[in-house]
Structure formats: C-alpha cells, structure tokens
Queue: 3 jobs
Job 1
Amino acid sequence: MELMQAVSTDYDIAKPWFKRLTRGDWLHVAFVVAVTGYVLARYAGRFDVYELGVFLGVMPALVWLGLAFKPLRLFLPALGVMAMLGISAYGGDLTRADQAFALKYFLSSQSAILWMCAMFVLATVMYWIGIFIAALRPQAEFATTAGQMGTWFTWVAVLMGFTGLMVRWYETHLMGPGMGYIPVSNLYEVFVLFALITALFHLHYERRALILEGHQARALGGFVLLVITAAVGFLLWYTFDRGAHEIQPLVPALQSWWMKIHVPANFIGYGTFSLAAMVAYAYLIKQHETVARPTPLFALWLAGAAMWMMFVGPGLLRTTRSTVEIAIWATAGGALSLAFVAMRSRLARLLPSFDTLDDVMYKAIAVGFAFFTIATILGALWAAEAWGTYWQWDPKETWALIVWLNYAAWLHLRLVKGLRGTIAAYWALVGLLITGFAFLGVNMFLSGLHSYGQL
C-alpha cells in the first residue's frame, strides 16, 4: 500500500489526467508520435498487416510507460539514437560489422550485447561494494555513491542490450531476402531479453522504493543483479562455447507473427518471477535476524546454493567437464551462499523494510502472472495455427502450465488468505526453481515440439 501511495506523488491526482501532465510528459508524447510517423513513413512497406498492428499497439504502450516510469522519457530517445547510429553505420552492407570502428567495438549487435554483459557485471560489483562498505562499519548506511553507480551501470547495460537487439533485428534483414525477424527466436536472444526485462523491472521498483526507504533501497540491487549476472555468465558461455550469437534462418515453426507477441510476454513473466525470488531471498535474510523463530540457517544456505547451480549448471552439464571442475563450481556456489549466511545480521539492517520487500515481491509476481497468462493463451493460439491443436502436452507446455498453477496458487492464497512472510518468500524461491526448469531444464533434458530451443 505504501508503495502504491508513493507512485501518486509524481502527480496531483485531484486534477483531471490531462492537466497533471508536465511539459516533460508532453515532450515524451510528442517524441513517440514523431518516431511512429518516421517509422511508418520509411519502413511501413516492410510490415505485413500483423506487424503493423503490433507496432501501432506498442506505441501507445510506450507513451503510457514513459508517463508511469519517468526515466524512460530519456531512455527511449537515447535508445532511438543508438539504434539509428548502428543501423546507419551498416549502410546496407553486413560485412561492415568487422570493418567500421563503431560497429566492431560498440554498435553491432554482438558488440553492444557484450557491453551489456560488462555493464551488468560492473553494476553488480558496485551494488555489493556499497553493501560491504556499510556492512563493515557498524551503524553505517548503504554507501550512496557506490549504489548510485550500480544504478547507472544497470541503466547503461539496459541501453546497450536493447540497442543490440534493435540492431540485430536490422542485421537479420541484411542476411538475405525473407530473413528478417524479431530477435526473440532462440535461446541466445531470449536470454538477452530476460536479463533486460529483469533489470528494467528492478530499476522501476528501486525507484519507487527509494521514495520510502532512501538509499537503503539500493541494497536490494545487489541481490537482484546476482540473478542477472548469473544469466550473463550463461550467455557468455553460450556465445563463446556454442557460437550461439550467429544469426540463423528461422525454423518453419517460428515463421509466424505470433512469435512477436508471445515470446516478449512470456519473458516478462520469467523476468518478474526471478526478481520476486531474489527479493524473497533478501526477505528471508532480513527475517532471520529480526523474528523470534527465524528461518533455519541451513535452509538459507541451501536456497542460495540452489539458485547458483540453477544457472551455472547448464553450462557444466552441456560441456565436457571433469568431476573436479564441477566440484569446484559447486563449492564456489556453496561458499557464496555461506557468505550471505555469515553476513546476515549486517545485511539485515541494510535491506529495505519488510513491508517494502513484501510489496515488491507481490507486485512482481502479480505483473509476471498477468503477462505469463497472456503468453500462455497466445502460445495456444500459435500452436493451433502451427500444429493444428491448441494443446498437446508437449514438455514445454506442461511445464508452462506448472509454472502458471504455482503462481496462481500463490496469488490466490495471498488475496484470499493474506499469505505473507516466510512461507510466501520460500514459495517464491521454489517458484524460481520451477520457472528455471521450464525455461532451461526442459531445453536440456526433454524433447518435444519446442526442440528448436535445445541447448
């Protein structure tokens, strides 16, 4: 409730909606309208009727997002400039990716995504430097400068990542006639999307929490960025070990306009569920030091170690690794989790309040569930078009249903029985393991109609 009240501080809700808009709001609306006109004037001929419908639907959504989350009013123009610079640098010639300085080191899709990876790692480091500085000084607050740098590095990472995806979309068109497609078609591309969506939602909730908690709210960034950095680690392995960044023609099942809306909706769910799980882990650490019957330390340690192995495990299992090397990685995960447990008392006083943590966890799951529901319905419609039936109990479909039922039950008990606290946090953590298996485990261990996403 407090977080909802904080949102209303941006505007005087007593005024009619159009009178609440500031000059910056109107500039944002004008920018989106201008971009819409430019894209339609220059590229409308390349859109089919479905793509045109999706594009015209996205533009009002961008207007609304910019009004609800004000930093996007600067982010969207910056993204537009970066993407157009990258596209212009190609000049219609894909071979310039290795010749033009700006493309080779900054603006080609692969270069921009590698910069995204580096920025996410730096953001994680800065958030944790802020935490460690405060943890080592009794009664000290979260280190403001380090936390702000963590936030800024996260924004730069999101900018470079979305630039990479936009430029990659253009690159697919340069591969040949009929090759162009939205870059959400394989595991490499959706891992980038997952990291970006998780980071954007984190930045949104961090901004709202800052109103209530001050700079203490940034401590949560250290936890959320861990899951993003783990995804970055997997992405780098997948790139350099498997060459997954290479653009390939779409398989027939993916040559559908449904992909353009099903996949992004799906990964809004995955991203927010992951964010909620990391917030839940922070909640349990804080709860251990402030309640009479705390979470068992072994459970805290096991939860952290399990999350580590969920992301590094696929790389270990899908490459030739010795037993010793696997043991080293497993030990590293256990040691990292043990460090959290050992620092729990210092971390507890740096984290936001229980109300804020609980509110962010609930809202992240609620948003994710809504989009995951939409994605599941869209997936059924896509399946009917591609395979002639809405549902075939394919492993991916089955695990998507398990994910949906898990969070449906969580939200039901939250709204009907007031589920909160330790049980809700543990459930959110278990939800991450379920979601992780639906996301990666199915691709690794099970086959089916979604085999085009196998590792």
Job 2
Amino acid sequence: MARSVGTVTEIGWRRLALLWLTGMDLRLPLLAIPPVLPIIHQQLQLDEKGVAALSSLPVLLLGLAAVPGSVLIARIGARRALIAGLCVTGVASGLRGLGPSAPVLFTMTVLMGIGIAMTQTTLPALVRQWYPGAITRATGVWSNGLLSGELVGAAATLPLMALLGWSWPEVFVVWAAIVLGTAVLVAVGTPHVAAEAGYWRGSGVPNWRDVRTWQLGLLQAASSMIYFGTNTFVPDYLHEIGQPGLVAAALASLNGAQVPASLVVGLVPWEVLSRRVVMYVASASIVVALAAILSGQPLLIVVAGGMIGFAGAYILVVCFALPALLAEPADVARLSAGGFTVSYCVSFTVNLAAGAAWDATHISASAFLPVLLGAVLAAVLGPKLASRPPTEIRAPLVTPRLQ
C-alpha cells in the first residue's frame, strides 16, 4: 500500500505554493466566463448553443490537447511544459476580449483551452516526481488551488468588473496577468535541475488498451458534467425563472463548497476516501441537490449549489490523485492525459447537447440532464476504480532536492 501522506518537511513549502498557484490558474480565467455570460450573450447576440459552446470549448480542448501535452512532457520535462502551458494560457486569456468580437473571443478561448490542457497534464507528473511519499497531500494542495481559482473566478469577476466600469474584456486581462505572473515564479523558483532527468519520461502517448484509462476518463467526465453543467446553465436558468439576483449567490455557493473537498482528500486517509459508501453518498447528494435547484425556491437553490460543489469536487480530486497512485512514474502523465481526453471530450459533447435540447424544447430543466448523468456514472464507476489498491511508490533514480 502506498504511503500517500507525508510531513511538511518531506513536501517542501516553496514548491507547494507554486503548485497551489498553478492549480488556481487552471480555473481562474475559465470561471470568469459564467458570471458575465448573460452580458456576453446579449452584447454578442449568442444563442443558447453559442453560450454552451463558449463555456464548453475550453473543456473540449482540455481533452483534445491533453495527449500533445503529455508528449511535450516526454520531450522537454514536466517543469518546462508547465511554464509553456502557463504562458499560452495567460496570453490567450488576456486577448479574449479584443474587439470585443465573437470570432476573437472563440479563437482565443480555444488557445486558452490548449494552454490549460498543457498545464493540467503536468501536475500529476510533477506530484509523482517531487512528492512520491505524499501524493494525496500534494494533490490536495494543487486541487485546492484549482478549486480556489474557481471560487475567485465565479465570485469576484462581477465585483471586479464593476470597479473596471463594467468592462468584461478588462476583467479577462486582470486574470491573465495573474497566470503570467505564476509562469515567471515557476521559471525563477524551480530551476531545471538534473534530478528530473533521473526519471524515464516514456512516450507520452496514452495506452488506449488499458481499461483504467477509460474508467478514469469516464469518472472524470462525470465530475466535469456535474460541475460545468451546473456552472454553465445556472445563470441563464435563474434568469429564465425570474430570479437573476440569485446568480452571484448560487455560483459562490457552488464554487465555495468545493474548497473543503480538496482539504478532505489531502488530509483523510486514502482507505477512507476510496470506500464505496463515500462515493455512493456523494452521488446521491447530487441528485437531491438537483431536485432542489429545480424547485425554484431561493434558499434551496443556494444550498443545493453548495451540495453539488462539495460532492462534485470530492469526485474530481479523487480522480486527480488516482494516476499518481496507480501508475509507474513514466506512465503517470500518459494515464492522466488519456483520462483527460476521454473525460473532457465526453463532457463537452454532453453539455453541448444539453444546450441544444434547451433550444429545441424550451424546457430549461433539460439543460441539467448532464448533472444527473454525471451522478449516475460516479455511482457506477467511482467505487470500482477508487477501491483498487495503489501501486507501490518506488524511490526515483535521483531524489530531487526540495526547494
């Protein structure tokens, strides 16, 4: 059984801080979109399919660009791939509001998605390299950053936009500057040391015949459908039912409740996290919360957002930890990339279909079918995959010096 929780000395605070910042950058520019979607919707005259595509395009790119990101890691190493991914993310994110125009917005959103995919694929590999004796704790740290980025992006975008004269393009530039600042800190604070060369990086191409790749991908897809499906359609749904004033509170509840989930994964023993009953409870709570949202009751909607946020984040962070726990060092990036590819392609397709269903039926509740499907998939696949015993964590050929 792998030892997955280490001491502070074993982990090293400087790299932990950089992991946290990088995790935040994975979602900060992405989650700046939902709060301003109604405004973009009106200014650029998008229909519901366009709204769904704008929110889901980065999700699709997280899948399509994950394998090239893994191959890049095999060629230049995880740290250099991380810096490259952050730079692409920051530049493209800042240029999304140029014009503003729909073609520029969609083009830069595609490039931003590629950068996020490159960045995200590096993190499980870096966790396995830097912290082989503290995998779930280190995963909990960068996942906490990711979820905090979702919270900040969802909750602070509208107040920041008010300070900037209600200019959504300027908000995108501010968040992009934070991403580029992290790239500089990683480049300065983690020099490319020879220790990383002690790892065989493999080919970077996922093993599509490995059943774990598909199981992990579908389980991650469940989490993505739950989270992105709720974030994408709750704002317009609340406008549809005449409660636009609940948008900020509902999104803040949804994203804020996710942060404790990352702490749970980092501090609770894996033997507890991987129990079947835990995954069953998480899935059931999502179904109950979905019913509460559709009730139209203001208090229930806000509380239900928090329930979905916590349960969905628990499933997601478990998925993030699994590649480093189940795969050999050289296979972590390729297993992660394969899982991301399956996950985000499925999530994009399902959420786009949900937007089309809303347009075709004019029934707002139909947009939340991906959330229900995600809960079912988590209940079926989660216990099967998470209950597998982690592979033994072997010491690297050269132990990296923690900074």
Job 3
Amino acid sequence: MSRTELIGGFHPVREALRHRPHQVLRVLVSDRRGGPRRREIEELAARHGVAVDVAAAATLDRLGVPSHNGFAAEVRPAPAGGGGDSELIVLLEDVQDPRNLGALLRVCEGAGVGQVLVRDRGSAPLSPVATRASAGASEWLAVERIVNPAQELARLKADGFWVYGAAAGGTAPWEIDLTGRVALCIGGEEKGLRQRTRSLCDALVGLPMRGHVESLNVATAAAALLYEALRQRESAHAGGR
C-alpha cells in the first residue's frame, strides 16, 4: 500500500488540490470552519473528485496535524520536480526551526528556484509545521534531503555551477554575477554555514548592514539575495532578446 502523509492548513491543502489533486486522497474540514475558505476548498475538491470529510476539530488534533486551522488532507508524498529555474539551486543546512524552513521554501518558490537541497542531519524535517509556514510553496518546489553537502557541491561544480555561500561580511550580491548556473548555500539560524561548506564556496555573499542590528532573519536575508539574483537573471534575459 502506498505511503501517505497528512498536511494541515488552508494554504497547503489548497495548493495540493491545485497542483497535484491526483495525489490527494481526501480532505478533512473542521465542523467549526465556514466562510469563503471552506467554500474554496470544497469547490476545488469537488472539481477534482476528491472526497471531503467534515470532522470535529478535536479529531484533527488527535490525528497529529499541528496548526491545521481547520483544514487537513491525506496525500501521497509529493514527487520530485518543480517548475523553477533549473540553473538556480539553493542548499540549506542546519535550519532547525520548521517555521524558518517553511519561510525559506516560500522565498525560494517565489524567486523561481529550481531545486532546494536540505542537509538531512541537523535540519528541521519538512513537517506539517514547515509545510504550513511555506503557505503551500512546498507543493511547487523540488525539495531533496541530502546526506553529504560536500559531494553535492562537487557534483554541481562539475556541472558548471558557481557556488556562493551566504555569510556576514561577504561581498554584496549586486557586486557578484548571479546569472548562469548558480548554487546559493544558506546556513542555520545560529552559526550559519558549516566551515566545510564555506571552504567549498567559490565566494561568500552577504548583505551590508547599515543599521544597529547585526543580522537579518535567515529567510529575510535569503529573500534579499535571491531577488537580487532574479533581478540580474531577468535583466540578462531581457538583454539577450
């Protein structure tokens, strides 16, 4: 029998119904939920022939779906693959807070990242909390758990990727060519990138801090870096027309 998992929250359930309805086995809606969000979920489910079960909120709690907000779905695991830029890859290591992981995935999907590699050991799992924090973005991304970042970076370099590591004091992103094949490595909330990963980067990239705080939230910093990459890539594409 195929393995299934539960996802919770309005946005993750909606994106699953929009993006991969053939893998949604059923939807659960709390009997306390009403209004336009419930109607939207029910209409999407009906459109794709997915059963909707109305359940008590306590039932959803007992199923172990955190932060479900009245919506959950039983789904088959998302397949590998995404619709982003295959030449823009992000490697994450030691991001321990699932909410930060979800926020990072939301940023990556918004910036058109083709694949996200997550160091398995020391990183938060792609749990319902992370999925909900991603606001459904995890449904659209190719996310792969990896064991050995050094091996992955060696493979990427062999494929012609330039590898950049996000670090305080690094070169400003607008001073680096972020077009072409680019892999951006982002470290955890407390210590950033591991020394081994830093040593394998072709250059370190960072954001100048002009205020009184020393650093930004990891997802906020990633957004600034990735959207500078997106700006450069779109400008290069427009110039090549």
